[in-house]
Design brief:
Distance between the termini: 20 Å
Oligomer: single chain
Shape: rod-shaped
Radius of gyration: 20 Å
Strand content: under 5%
Largest sheet: none
Number of strands: 0
Length: 87
């Protein structure tokens, strides 16, 4: 690698810390988002299954809302990880 592309000691240290923090926070957000999405879909499917057509719209709304939270968390986590890498 050419010398011009290497980070100085301080820059390399800061980059290491920010990437570590970014990856940690991103991983935690992904985990919470995934658990929220799965739990919400489970609750929604349970409501729909237990109530039949009467609760179908409520069950689907809960499931879709939870999936939206999961997707939002995934996108946020990706941004945090990218920021940690200086992207």
């Amino acid at each position: 690698m050419p010398l011009g592309n290497q980070d100085s000691g301080a820059t390399a240290g800061v980059r290491f810390v920010t990437s570590t923090v970014g990856n940690t926070v991103g991983g935690l957000v992904n985990t919470v988002g995934g658990v929220t999405g799965a739990a919400g879909r489970g609750v929604g499917e349970t409501i729909e299954g237990a109530t039949g057509s009467a609760g179908k719209s409520v069950g689907r709304a809960i499931a879709n809302g939870a999936t939206s939270v999961e997707n939002g968390a995934h996108n946020f986590a990706g941004g945090v990880k990218d920021a940690g890498y200086g992207k």
